[in-house]
Fold each of these.
Amino acid sequence: MSKTVELARHLETLKINDMYKNDFYWTWDKTDDEIDAVFTVADALRDLRERNKSTRVFDSGLGISIFRDNSTRTRFSFASACNLLGLEVQDLDEKTSQIAHGETVRETANMVSFMADVIGIRDDMFIGEGHKYQKTFMDAVKEGYRDGVLEQQPTLVNLQCDVDHPTQCMADMLHVIHHFGGVENLKGKKVAMTWAYSPSYGKPLSVPQGVIGLFTRFGMDVVLAHPEGYEVMPEIEEIAKKNAEATGGSYYKTNSMAEAFKDADIVYPKSWAPFAAMEERTKLYQQGDKAGIDALEKELLARMAGQPTYTFEVIATEKKPEKRSYAGLTMELMEDYLAIWENELADAARAKFAEMKAKHEKKELRFSLIKRWFLELFPKFDVKKAKKEIREKKFKDAKAPYKVVKVSVAVPQISAK
C-alpha cells in the first residue's frame, strides 16, 4: 500500500466538510482536524511528487496572487503549489492595473475572480488593515457569486496579513513534526520564538504571532523573547495561553535571550518592528500620508544606526550529530542492505548504488529514482520496518546531548517611541 493511500484513508476519518468553499485566514480559526487535514494532504502531495506521479486536480483555471508587500519565498511557493495542482498563476500588480486609476476593491475582486479557483493575498504592513482588506476583498467575491456575476466562488489563502502568516507557520510546523518523528514526540519540546536584529525596518508581527498561535496547539513549551517595546498583539498572546492550557504545554514571554535559549529544542529567530512604530505607521496610512510613512522609515533607520550597542549573552545550542534528511537515512539503510547481500550481482549493484548516491549528493539525481531502482532489485524490502528505523534514528538524533556555546551578539539599542 502506498503512503498516499494510507494518508487518504486517514483523511476520511477527519471532520473537514466545513473547509469546502471556506477561506483560510489564520490557523486558530481552524479545528484540529482541519489543521491535520492540511498536513495530511501536504504529505500526500509530497509522496506523489517524489514518486513522479501526477498531482493535477485542474485542467484549467487560475490562481490569482496579490502581493501588497514584497515577497520571494511565499510568492514562489504559491506559484509552485498552483502549478502542482494544474492552475496557471496570474499576479495582480496594483500599480499597473485599473486600481491605480481609482477602481474599487469590489470591482477588482469580481473582475480577477473569473475563472479563478484560488486567490492568495499578502497585506501585512499596517496593523488593523491587512486582514480587513482580505475580508473586504472576499466579501465582494462572495457577493458576486450570490448575485450570479461569478459562476464559481474562489477560495482565499492568506499569504500573510498583519495578524498571521499561516502558510509559513504551517510549513515550519510540518517540518518540525517530520524532524521529531511525529506529532506524538512534540509534547514538552521547548520552542524559543526570538526577536532578531535586521538592518531593515518595519517588518510585520505576523510571523511571531503565527508561531505562538500554532505551536502551542501541540503541547509544546513556547517562549516569546524580545527586547522591551517589541510586544505582539495581546489578543494573540491570549490565544497562545489558551492553547497551551488545553494541550498541557506552556507559554510565556521574556526579555532575556539567555533564558529563552536555555534547553531549547527549537530556536526560531525573526525580526519584527516595535509595536508603537507599527501603530504610528498605520495612523499615517489611514491619513493617506505616504510622505510621513517614508519619513518615519528613515527616522527609524537613522535611530538604529546612531544608537549605542548593548550585548545579549546568548546560550546557543548546537546538536550533534547533525540532522540528516529522510533520503539520507534511507540510503544508509539501503547501503547496509547491499553490504550484506551475497549474490553474483552484488558487486555490480553496490557499484551502481555508489554511483547513484554520488549523483544524488551533487543534486544530479532525484532520490525517488534511487528508491525505485532499489525496490525493483529487492521487491521484498520491508519499507514499513525501514521507516520505523528511520524515525527511531531521527528521534535519537533529536535527543543527542547539547554542545553549549556562549555567543555575544551586539544589537542596536532601539527605543520603541
Amino acid sequence: MEDKKPDLMTEINPVFLTAKSCLGVLARLKDEDALKLIGKLGFFESQAAEEIKNAPKDKLEIAAKVAPAFYSQVETRFFATNEMMVNDKNAKLFLDLGCGYTPRGIKLANSGIKYIGIDLPAVINTISPIIKEFIGENANINYKSGDLTNYSSIIEALGDNKGELFITTEGIMNYLNSFELKEVISNIKRLLKAYGGKWVTCDNTLLASQKYIIAAALGIPPEKSEMLAQMGNNMATSMAKIKKFDNVFVDKDLEKCKKFLNDNGFDLNIEKGSKHLPKMIRAIAAFPENIAMNMRKVLEDMDFWIITLKNDAKDIAPYEGKKFNIYLKREEGIIIIKLEGRLDTISSKIMIEAFNDESKKGNFTEIKFDLGNVEFISSGGIRALTIIDNNLGNEKHIEITNRSEERRVGKECRSRWS
C-alpha cells in the first residue's frame, strides 16, 4: 500500500502531531468530550494501530509499563489548569497558545469562560468546524490560526478582546529551540504588558517529576526509573519526526529556568498540584490502593508555575516586525528568491508555493535565497528550505546568501548550505 504523502503544513512543522497524544490520553480515560472529538477526528486510532504494528516488542513492553504514569500527569495538568482558570477572579480570557485538539475549549466555554485557542493552520482548520458542530455558535469559544513565535498573528487572533489573560503553553515549550524560546518569551511579555494577567505552566516541573511518578507506579526507586522516563519521552515524540530541545526553560536544573525568568522581567509564584487536583484521577484508579496513593502524592507535589510580569519590568519595545514578502526573478538559469520579514511556519507555506509555481516553468539549474532582510527564521522555516532542497534532485542546488548570525539565519543555514 502506497504511503500517503503528508500535507505541506505537516512537512513544514510536524510538531502539532504530538498534540494528538493529549486528546488520545483523555479519550482513553473515558472523558466524554474527548471521546466525541476523537470519534469525529478519527486520526488517533489509525495512527496508533500503525505505530503498534511497527513498534519493536521491547518498546511496547516499556510503553505498557510507563503509559499509566504519563497518563496521570497529562490528566492532572489538563484538569488542574482548567480548575485554576475557573477559580480565577481576575482573568477575563483563557488564551491557549498551542491549543492542539483537546476539549479544553468546550469545557471552559460551557462554564461561561471566554476561550481562544491558537495553533497552526493544520490544527485549527481541523478542530474549529468540529467544535462548532458539537456546541453550535458560542461567543465564548474561538479558534484562530497563529504561530507562537509571531506576535502579529497572536494579536490578530485576540481581536478586540480586552482584560486580563490567563495564558497557557501546554506541552509546547520543550519543542522550541533557544531562538524560538526567546521569541515566545518576548511575546508573552508583550501580552502581559498590554493585557495584564498571568502565564501558567507545569511543563518544566512535569518533566522533572516523571521519574517519581513512574517509580511510584512500578514500586521501584526513582533512580531506577529515570531511564524509563527518558525512553517514554522519546516514544511520545516518535509520531512526529521532531526532537525535543534542551532549552533553558525545560532544563533539568529548575534553578536555571527560575533565573532565566527573573532575568527576563518575570515574577514567579509556585503552587502545588494538591491545591487543584481532581478528586478522582482516572489514570490511577485501576492501581492497587497503596500504589494509587503513592502516585497521587507525587501528583500533589507537582509544581504549577504562576508567572507574572514584574512591576518594575523594563519597557518592552513595541513589535515592529516587517510584513513577510517574497520577490522572485530569473537571471541566466538561476531563480533568485529574496525574502523579507519572518520565515516561520505560516510564511514558509507561502514561500514553497511561490517557488513551486516558478519552478514549473523549468529551465533553471540553481536557486539563490537572499536572506538579508529576514528578521527571524524558525524550525519550520529551516524545514521549508530543506523541503525545496530535497525536491531539487542532484542536478540543481541551493545557495543561501546574506545570512546573519544575529538573526539565527546564519547558524542554522550554514550547517546544511555552507
Amino acid sequence: MLSKPSQSSSKSAVSKSSSDEEVSACSKGSFSLTIFCSEHIGNNFYINVLLNLEDIYFFKLVCWRVFMHTKISSVGVYSPDRILSNKDLEKILDTDDNWITKRTGIKRRRIGRKDETNQTMAAEAAKNAIANYVGKFSPIEYIIVATNTSEKNFPNSAMYVQKKLREFNDDCVLSNAGGHDTSAGCAGINVALQEADALVRSEMYDNVLVVGSDKLSFVTDYSDRGTAVLFGDGASAYVLNSIDEKDSGFLGHYSFGDGFGQNYLTCEENQDKVNIFEAFSAVEDGREPLIEKGKVLKMDGKEVYEFVISNLCELVENFKDNKKLNPLGLDFEDLNAVIPHQANLRMFKAIDRKCPGFMEKCMVTIEDYGNTSTASQGVSYREFLENAKEGDTALSVGYGSGLMFSSNLYKVC
C-alpha cells in the first residue's frame, strides 16, 4: 500500500497495512528507490521501501514466497531383472564369493539387458516415482538427469525421459518441460538435487523431477577383477515440489572437489574390454572371450578410498559448524539417517572406526545392488521416507570421479 506520510512523519513512520494491493508508480522524471528495513509478519516477508519521486512516499512490498523450500514427494526405483551373484562371477573371474564379500560387502548386483540403457532405466524409475506419488499431482516442469554412462553425447537423457513420460501419462509432465543432464561421478545425484532445490527456491519452477541412472556394466571390463565385482545397473527418481514451510525439506547442501584427483577415476574411450555377455558366452562355449574396443571405467581404488574416508570423516566431525550444509546447527548425533553413496561396505566400517556411531545411522543396500553410481541412494531414500515421521532428518552423501564430493541435508515435512 502506497502512503504519503505527513510533514511530521519520520522515516520510521511506515504504513503497517498488510494489504497485498498492487503498487505501481511512474514518473517522467528520475526517481530513487531505497530499501531501508524489513520485517517478518506471519509467513510473509515485508520490505519497507523509500520511493523518491516529486515527494517522498513509503510503501510495503510483500514477498509472499520467501520461505519456499523443496520437498521430496516421491521416490521411484528401477532395477533390471537379471541378478549377477558372486557365484556367477566365479565362473568368469579368478575370484570367489568370500573374497568379494570381505572386500566390498557385495553379494549380488543387477545387470541391464542389451537393449537397456541409462535412458530407458531413467524413464522407468521416473514412471515408478510418479506411480508412487500420493495426493494431487502437479505436472513436472523441469527434469534433471544425473548420469555418467550416456551412450550418446546428445541429445540429453532429460529429453528422452520427458518423451517417455508424455507417452506414459500426458498429464504428468508439461509438453514443453525443459531439462538437462549433469555429470559429477557418483556424486552426480547429490549435485542434481542441489540444482533442483535452487530452481525451486528461486521460484523458477514448483515441480522438478531428478533422476540418477547409470548402466555401469556398459563401461566395465569383465576381465578385470578389481572393477567387475563392484558395479551394477539401475536408476532412481525423485519428484520434488515446492512447499511454503520454513526449515523443512532440503535445509542445505555442500559440494566440493579436487581436480588434481581427476585421473584416479575415469572412463576411457577405445579401450580393450570383455563385455559381460561375451564373458559368459565364452565360458559356456569353452573358449577364450573375444576382446572388443569400447568405453572402460578405470579406477585407482586406493586413492579414491582415501579421498572418501578423509572427507567423509571431516564432514561428520565438522557437521554442526558447516553453515552451508547445516544452517540450523544440528548435531550429527541427532540425525535419523545417513544415506551414503553405496560404494563399499568396508569403507563405511573404516569411517565408523574413526567416527563412532556412523554405522548406526548408515543405511546400507550395497549387498543386494552393488555400486550403481548415481542410482545408489534411491533405495535408501525411499525406505527412509516410507518410515520417517515429520521432523526426521537425513544426510545424503555422494563421492567419486572428479574427484567430487556432494552432500544434502533433508528434513521430513
Amino acid sequence: MDKSMYRDMWVYVEQEAGQALPVSLELCCEARKLCDAAGEKLVAVVVGSLPEAELAKIRACGVDAILTVSGTGYEYPNVDAWAALFTKLCEERRPSAVLVGGTIFGRDFAPRFACRLGTGCTSDATELVYDEKTGCIEFVEPAVGGRLMAVITVPEARPQVGTIRPGTFKLSPAGERPCALEELRVDFPVSEIRTEILGFEREALDESLNIADAEAIVCVGNGIKGAESLGRYRRLAELLGGKLACTRPVFDRGLLPFKLVIGQSGAVVKPKLYICFGVSGAINHVTGFADAAKKAAVNSDPARGRACPALARGRAALRRARRGARPRGDGSAHRLAAALGAGAGQEKLRHHNLRPHAARTQPGHPAQHAPRAARGQPRHPGDPASRHGLPPGDDGLGTGGQARAGAPRRVRGRRPR
C-alpha cells in the first residue's frame, strides 16, 4: 500500500437532538494538533444536518473543511448505513486517519467499517502522538492492568481508525480558519437496515447522574461497607456543591449506577476538587480524574496499620522522582503520583512514565522489559499473548482476542524504567 496516497485526517461529528456531542469537538481540537504536526488538513464529517450555530462551534476548533452527508437511511443512527457510508467515503477520498468519539454508537460502527477496509481500529486511547519518522499516529493506552502503557500503531494499512473516550481531551478551540463546506448526498437502501425502531423515548435527564461537568466530586471505592453508608458521602457532596461518584467495583456490587463510574471503564472528569474514600488507587481509576485541579484521598489499611496507602505510595514516588531516583516496583505508584499532581515535578513524572523506551513485541523479537509473568519460558507455547504475561487468546488491548490478521498493528509495551 502506498501510504503517500492517503492524506487528511477526519473526525466524525456525532450529534444528538441537533447538537454536536462534546466528545466530537474535543477530538477536533486534539486532531488539529496532529494535523499541524503532519502537515495535513482536518476534515469534520457530519451525517445529517446541523444548525449554523453548531457548525460555528466546529469551525472554532480549527477544522479546514466540513463535509455534510445527507440521503436516505440516515434518519436515525444505525450501524448498517453508517458503516457502509464511511467505507464508501474512505475508499473514494482516502483519508490518512478517521477518529470517532468512543460513545456507544461510535464503538459499534467504527470497527465495522475499519474491518471492511482491512485496517486496524484501536479504542480508548488516552494520548495521541504523531510520529514524524513513520508518519503514523501513536495511540497510547494503559494495558495489562495498568502495569505498562501500550503504544498501538497501524504501520501499513490506511486509514488509521481509533475511538477516543469522552472527556479524554480538553475542549480548547484553536480558533476559526478558512473552512470549506461541502455537501454530499449518499443514499443507503432503507431495506438493508437490519434494525427497526419501534419507538423512541428520550431518557429523563437526572442531573445527579451527570458528573461530567461537576466542579466537586466525592468518589467512593470498594472500601465502603455497603449501601447504608452512602448517605454520609452523598451529604458531603451536596455540602461541597458537587456530585457523588464511584469506582467500577462499587457499581459491580450494585450500589450505584454505571453513569457514576469514574475511570477507564467509565467517565473521565476534570473537577476543581476530587475527594475519594476507600479507593485503592488503581491506574484504571486514576486515569479518570488525572486532570482534576485538587485531589485528596481518604483511606485506611488496618492490615498494614497505615492510612491512605494509595496517597502514601504516590507521595513516596513523587519524592523519589524529585531526587532523580528510579521508580520502585512496577511503577504504578509513580504513575499515581503524576496523576495526584506534582507541581514542578509533575511534567517529569508524566514524561518518565508515558514515554520510556519501547519494547519490540513482533514475532521474532522477544519482548524486552516484559511483565514478570512473561519472563522465562512461555506458559502456552505458540500463543503470542503468553510472551507478554497475558492469558491465552488475550491481546491485552481490551479487544478480547488476538489482533485480526487483516488489520496489521504494531504494539509496543512501555514499561517504567
